[in-house]
User: Fold these one by one.
Assistant:
Number 1:
Amino acid sequence: MTEFFHVITADRFLECLGGFPRLAGETVPLDDALGRTLSRDLACPEDLPEGARSTVDGFAVRARDTFGASDSIPALLTLGPPVLMGELPRFEIGAGEAAPIPTGGFLPPGADAVVMVEYTNPAEAGSIEVTRPVTEKANVLERGEDALSGTTLLATGKVLRPQELGFLAALGIIEVPVYRRPRVGVISSGDEIVPMDRRPRPGQVRDANSHAISALVRESGGIPTLFDIVPDDVARLERTLGEALAAADVVTMSGGSSVGARDLMLQAVSRLPEVELLAHGIAIRPGKPTLLARQGENAVVGLPGHPVSALVIAQIFLAPFLRYLQGAPLAKGPAGHRVQAVLATSVHSTIGLEEYIRVRLERDGEGNAVARPVFGKSGMLSTMVRADGIIRIPMNAEGLPGGEVVDVIEF
């Protein structure tokens, strides 16, 4: 039987993905930037806050007028006008004076601290008792303390979460520079593949790959475009690949990547103009028959036709690659959390192959995380549905013993 043309390790495959350039930047409205990655540093345009503000409800005072105050010997201060929200105070705080101030109110000139209302008592008309001293700047957010004009506000590579969007909105930044979202062409191939809305005849199967891969692309920030199912015809495969590469940054194609008489993906990719084959096979299980090629700055990722293998490879390599194109560091595996868990039972592996095992996370009687392997025959998509994540067995190991603490990469 013909051997794989260019088998490489999983780490080397990841290095090849890192050789592709990141996508160009674009400017988008702030409200469309959730989950996007900054393509350049953002400089702070103004001080936040623009003046000293109170962080509590209380009284603006001169701190030195409260020194020595206690419940038994309170400091007696004369009340001035109240600070109004949304207005700059037009009066000053003099010696022995205090002004009512709400949370967020600007400190009047002369004040350098705020006494919380809980530490005051009403006194004779027009005055209050302060029962606890404050130091300078107590309960005060100083000008520029939240964000200082001219400094770097957020650095390149920052993924924008709701809190970053609120922060930028508070500074009047209505548009942000982010990496462009990758356009991904998704192709399924094979004479036996039919659309999901068609009842398969004997020997046929519905197309699961393109819909699962498209969902993963969207989850990873990409924009998928599904192409029609391509039969096992080299010329049609080549033509569809060319159309997809003309419209996308990355093209994924599932089916026909394994060695054998029906291995048409390699033939079709090799016939593309100015294409460079980077890998035809990874020392990994599942998913050994995976292909990677480059045409200019565009990538072709040939996935196994087997839905479970295709999904595992997409989780381990395609998802991080799409995030990398958008500015994220390139790290193998899904974007989910890593959880340490005790392996419930021993699992075996083949030396020379890096193996990924699907596991379900459970809790034992003491609340400790337990990783229970999800076993099943190779064609069972339900094993992916039942799994919460995967564990990795190094290529130089024969397996992992039950009871060992493992890192679970959550889906």
Number 2:
Amino acid sequence: MSVRILLIEDEDEIADFLVRGLREEGFVVERAADGQEGWHQLKTSAWDVVLLDWWLPVTDGLALLRRFRQQNQVTPVLFLTARDAVSDRVKGLDNGADDYLCKPFAFDELLARVRVLARRQSQSGFTALSYQDLSVNLASQRVERSGQRIELTSREYALLVFMLRHPGEVLSRTRIYEHVWEERYDGLSNTLEVHVMELRRKLEAYGPRLIHTLRNRGYRFGGEDT
């Protein structure tokens, strides 16, 4: 299961360390460097766990958390902050944080807390993605269409999950490649096209086309051909 983590942290050194460490543990991690960028990421993508710094440029973490919870969002949020007073911890938790970790902290402790929050999220019922007759169980990674099981490679599965999280959106090749492969897209490789072609073949064995190519723009999951 690919757990998606959003890290909202303005200190580059801390952010680089956490992104690298969490990715090495198998998590999919994206970073926002300030409150404004963090809010954009929260609004436009689905996350399993959010790691949130308190002191952020533009919009501070507490204000961001309040705004997020006002949208009835239940994604687990772990505060990462140097504010270690009991009153600050209480304020953070009262405003919607699920956990609170003071800087400096041990990476192993952060990792343990992230796993707890991710497990809690999966046990709360957010374990499946679906579109029409297609379903994906995120816990078992079982993919079915029209009641038929579809066997995918790990990369095909990651590609499908990413598209299922963004139905109807225009997804550029750069955006897909950098999220699924976690590498910069050079515009020359045909790796993405090959994986899309194979994923289409497997999905279309049991139903009409779901992944549409948009000339000079990328791909869209769902809807009609244009």
Number 3:
Amino acid sequence: MSEFPKGIFVTGTDTGVGKTIVTASIAWNLIQSGRKVGVLKPVQTGTIVSGPTDIEFVQSLFGEDSPLDVACPYMFPDPVAPLVASMLSGERIDIGAIEESYSKLADQNDTVIVEGAGGLQVPILEDYFMSDLALDLNIPILIVTRPDLGTLNHTFLTLESAKRKGLDVTGVVISNYPWDPGIPEQTNPELIISMTGVNILGILPHDNSISVEKGDIGNIKELASSRLSPKLGGTFDLELFLSSLE
């Protein structure tokens, strides 16, 4: 595997697209390559829901033992955007505290993977968004997108937003890819590449054995290796995959 950056910011085209599973998969691959990895979830909302939080799911995969208040400095019970969740809880988010957590993890690890909430334009403060946090942390972003109808628009708009903000986009991962793809799923990967010029660094399939909400890691270790590209520590061959769709 080529040298991996000191940090990477995992964002999505929407909420629920699979950022946590992609984050966990990258972390697993990097650890298998001998790197020490820390994971940061700057803001977690919806903790009132039963089951593990995103950061707890990721940590359970490889036994990462960073204190929870460092790995996830802000947790709010309501399943809404960070700005709204913080307002409902009466606690204003301090960006400096998030940056301090990142610095601590960066000092202790070879790589820090930061998992955002929702997409780039999700508000953290009234005038401060996930894209601003990625920019302030000065790390490249990885965009997680879905495979089906509508993803071309969502992916293109996310990339346009990243470009306007001046973010460095390392690539795209398509998550939850069906085992029996229809025409949109078959054609979207190549269209994403041709429309945006950005590399697809993995295509993770749908797997019923994996559930963040239930804390089930299922086949995630095997899929991390086989369905993420060498740039993300795996063995996935995009050209071979695309040729299989023809």
